[in-house]
Design brief:
The structure holds 2 protein chains of 2 kinds. By secondary structure, chain A is α+β, with helices and mostly antiparallel strands. Chain A has a 5-stranded antiparallel β-sheet with strand order 1-3-7-5-6. Chain B is mostly helical. Chain B contains 18 helices and no strands. Chain B has helices at residues 2-16, 29-45, 47-54, 61-64, 75-79, 86-96, 104-121, 127-136, 140-153, 156-166, 169-175, 179-184, 191-203, 208-218, 224-234, 237-242, 246-265, 271-282. Classes of the chains: A alpha+beta, B mainly alpha. Chain A binds chain B through residues 240-242, 245, 302-304, 306-307, 310, 312, 364-367, 391, 394, 419, 422-425, 436-447, 449-451, 453-454, 457, 480-481, 540, 543-545, 549, and chain B through 64, 66-73, 75-76, 78-80, 82, 104-105, 112-113, 116-117, 120, 145, 152, 206, 232-233, 236-244, 272, 275-277, 279-280, 283.
């Protein structure tokens, strides 16, 4: 300490002016206000190597397409216009006015980050790619230099997302004059839970199809009721009705003077042969709308495994406890799980992780959205967990019979086709007595309930939910070598800002009311959620899915966007 | 006598090889002859069912590729055939196999789905095929579906057959595995896997006898979770209520609940596993 004092005194007080002190200093937006200050005592300098809830610079994976060339901006070494420049995090080499003639400097990323990082240099109005092996001149050092940094990827299994920039200055003979380091973190890709405000909704429309048209009309009515634009993906060009499974939209952002410089990011489903998912690149990638595709290469997974690469199996638990941005929720077991490459990528984002897994391997399709959803609620927590419940369905049926034995003859699925107890696709419905008297179906459903109870217990323990924060909605299952919704899977709903869009239940109608729908609506009304029924039976239910499976949404970047305050 | 039987059975096996996709069971000659006759009669009486089975769409990629799971699946289609579907399915499973080329996953779905659909019919004429399939299937999923289908028949014969195979490997192979099965034992399938399959089969047989077998297996740490899961179905109070036989359900609960609790205490079952079984007895 004393020795330092004497050195400083020598430099500052004994014949040298302050201007003679070498200024070898990097500044980054460590205080996260979107502006960089290079003074020695500025927080952007003082905290330039930190990463904490209070300090630490952020940069973006520049995966959107600001120049509309159909490619992710980070795939080229060009700053694609002013909008693209906004996606660069700034790094300032503080001006050293008295830099000696012939001095040179380099700024190099650390080895782990180097493959994922590109530097640009700002000269006047132009940005040019900067080769980290190139040297800055003495004139550069005297004037100071502004650099821009982008990543070509998010954190991933081979890169934590941390970047250290090493600034090294040497004299004309190559003798080191000093160094400095600054740290940045790439922003994570964050998923949105059902609580996020919807920006737009999507559905794949097969115009003229008698089953698609009513579905689209109901979803449109639901979206319109919430003043949300509905994007109709052309089913002729992208023939895959499972819009949910094709993509998941998240977001990323870094601090800016305006608060946050953000972009949406769409994740494409892993299977290359799912060509309808090319819509993500052809129809969604745009300015401030990024695109990523994570998959094993080669991708070689069969349908049993591959089903879990559909994004009905990827959700986010809404914010709770130590997860103010929610937590990634995936249906997965060691024997049947999402593609490792995608799973590990999601884990690498850290802020919403580690991924929380529940057992959905017992389901034929295997997606978490077959048994779980989340809705807003006028409660202190602000949301509730919705779970498929065979027990609830059975009790409703039993209660109807108890209230009036004649109700045993009332039929479910009376106005649609349904597989009957012998497996025949028939009209005319299935009587309550047939369902309650089918020992195999009842055993299947009780087993399904025990599986759901296991998921319920796991979520309850993890989140700290009270029993009254879990809403059971009536769903019966059947086992076809894996469980599948037998009645309409009303849990598989589209949730938009306090509006639940479940599939029409086609349950038993007594006194003019569908008992399943009535029960669902009462459950939702009690917590301030409105219900907008969607007809999906033929095109979705009979093909192993429901409303959530057939729709998708982009949710707005949350008002609380400060993910960087989460440290793990 | 035993040698003769072995030779006869080996001859049958030879006749059945190379197995076509769909063939999961090589029958003894008498059973094979009987089945062929039954199939021929059924073809005369209900030819449409044979056509429909051969026209199954659930194994065609252009069809299942549009479903949500994007997995081949034939159970619902086959169930829709009702009783007429039995012989066409047994013909595929034990005689002719599937004539068209199938990918591995499609083949598995076909075999498993047919076995499941056969089991749902509850027709005892399927028993020889199902027994052979339990013995011979080279994949656990297929063996399990065969065992479940057999379990659904649920007579004392099936409980004895499956119960024997659910015992530890050494005793089961000595007591019940036929020479044909041993030789045919395309059986790369491990004994443990076949045990699990047999236990699942017992789980499809809702009877006190099956529950008794499973209760003893809950004491075996190696298979306790499998046996407990099977008991969940066998002791399902909903199922017994549906069947109008509350009393048998009560007896199963009285028999199995203490065993499950004991296995939980001995850490052969996790708390969650035990709770799942006990809940299924109670609701």
């Amino acid at each position: 300490m004393r020795r330092l004092f004497f050195l400083s005194a020598l430099v500052l007080g004994c014949g040298s002016s302050a201007e003679d002190v070498p200024v070898i200093r990097l500044a980054v937006d460590a205080d996260r206000d979107g502006v960089i200050h290079t003074e020695a005592n500025a927080p952007d300098v003082v905290h330039r190597a930190e990463w904490s809830a209070q300090f630490g610079a952020v940069f973006l994976a520049n995966v959107d397409d600001d120049d509309a060339d159909g490619k992710v901006d980070a795939t080229d070494a060009v700053v694609n216009g002013d909008a693209d420049a906004l996606d660069l995090a700034r790094v300032q080499l503080a001006a050293w006015k008295n830099a000696p003639t012939g001095a040179t400097a380099t700024v190099t990323p650390d080895q782990a980050a180097a493959p994922f990082v590109r530097l640009f240099r700002h000269d006047g109005s132009a940005w040019t790619a900067w080769d980290p092996t190139a040297a800055f001149t003495d004139a550069d050092l005297r004037a100071g230099v502004e650099l821009g940094v982008e990543a070509n990827d998010f954190a991933n299994p081979t890169w934590s997302g941390a970047l250290t920039l090493h600034y090294a200055v040497a004299d004309r003979d190559g003798k080191p004059l000093g160094t400095d380091d600054a740290a940045l973190h790439v922003a994570p890709l964050l998923l949105q839970s059902n609580l996020g405000t919807v920006d737009r909704a999507y559905v794949t429309a097969f115009q003229g199809d008698p089953d698609s048209d009513p579905f689209v009309a109901d979803v449109l009515a639901d979206a319109t009721g919430d003043s949300v634009p509905l994007v109709e993906i052309d089913g002729n060009q992208y023939p895959d009705q499972w819009t949910q499974d094709l993509f998941e939209v998240g977001w990323t952002g870094m601090p800016s003077a305006a608060g946050v410089q953000s972009m949406y990011v769409v994740i494409r489903t892993p299977p290359p042969d799912r060509t309808a998912a090319d819509y993500t690149q052809e129809g969604m990638l745009a300015a401030d709308f990024g695109w990523v595709w994570k998959r094993s290469q080669p991708y070689n997974r069969n349908g049993d495994e591959g089903s879990l690469d559909s994004f009905g199996d990827l959700d986010a638990i809404p914010p709770y406890g130590a997860y103010p941005f929610g937590r990634v929720l995936i249906g997965s077991t060691p024997l049947r799980h999402m593609d490792d490459a995608l799973r590990d990528f999601l884990n690498a984002q850290v802020v919403q992780g580690p991924n929380f897994y529940v057992d959905t391997a017992w389901l034929f399709v295997g997606h978490v959205d077959e048994i779980v959803s989340f809705v807003k609620a006028n409660t202190p927590r602000g949301w509730k967990l919705v779970m498929a419940s065979p027990a609830r369905a059975r009790k409703i049926l039993q209660d109807l019979v108890t209230a009036d034995p004649a109700n045993a003859n009332v039929k479910l699925f009376a106005d649609v086709l349904q597989y009957d107890a012998r497996g025949q696709l028939v009209g005319g419905g299935v009587a309550i007595s047939t369902i309650l008297g089918d020992a195999t179906l009842m055993a299947d459903n009780q087993v399904a309930q025990t599986k759901i109870d296991g998921v319920r217990a796991a979520l309850k323990a993890e989140i700290g939910l009270a029993d009254d924060e879990i809403l059971d909605v009536p769903v019966l299952f059947e086992d076809i070598g894996g469980d599948l919704a037998y009645s309409a899977g009303v849990v598989n709903l589209l949730h938009m800002d306090g509006r639940a869009g479940p599939p029409r239940a086609h349950g038993p109608v007594v006194a003019g009311k569908d008992a399943f729908e009535d029960d669902f609506e009462k459950t939702m009304t009690a917590i301030g959620v409105t219900t907008a029924w969607v007809e999906d039976w033929n095109l979705y239910h009979l093909e192993e899915g429901e409303v959530h499976c057939g729709t998708n949404v982009t949710r707005k970047v949350p008002a609380n966007f400060r993910w960087w305050e989460v440290t793990r | 006598m035993r040698a003769l039987a072995v030779m006869m059975l080996l001859g049958d096996v030879a006749a059945a090889t190379p197995a076509r996709p769909g063939v999961v069971a090589a029958l003894g000659s008498a059973e094979r002859t009987q089945l062929a006759a039954d199939v021929a009669r059924a073809r005369r009486e209900s030819p449409a069912a044979f056509v429909r089975v051969r026209a199954l769409s659930g194994v065609r990629r252009e069809v299942y590729g549009k479903t949500r799971a994007r997995r081949p699946e034939v159970v619902r289609e086959l169930r829709a055939l009702g009783a007429d579907g039995l012989m066409p399915m047994l013909e595929v499973l034990a005689l002719d196999g599937w004539r068209d080329a199938l990918g591995d996953e499609e083949r598995r779905a076909l075999e498993s789905g047919m076995l499941r659909a056969v089991g749902l019919l509850g027709d005892r004429r399927a028993a020889p095929v199902l027994r052979a399939a339990v013995e011979q299937a080279a994949e656990e999923g297929v063996a399990t579906e065969a065992a479940i289908a057999l379990g659904r028949l649920c007579s004392p014969d099936e409980v004895a057959f499956l119960g024997a195979r659910a015992q530890a490997a050494a005793s089961s192979s000595q007591s019940v595995q036929s020479p044909s099965a041993q030789s045919q034992s395309q059986s790369s399938l491990a004994d443990a896997a076949r045990r699990r399959a047999a236990i699942a089969g017992l789980g499809a047989c809702r009877s006190l006898a099956s529950a008794q077998r499973l209760a003893t297996l809950v004491d075996d740490a190696a298979v306790a979770p499998d046996a407990a899961a099977a008991l969940t179905a066998v002791g399902s109070s909903w199922a017994w209520q549906a069947a109008g036989d509350i009393e048998t359900g009560r007896q199963i609960r009285a028999l199995a609940a203490p065993v499950v609790t004991r296995a939980q205490a001995a850490h052969k079952l996790t708390d969650a596993q035990a709770a799942a079984v006990l809940r299924s007895f109670e609701r």
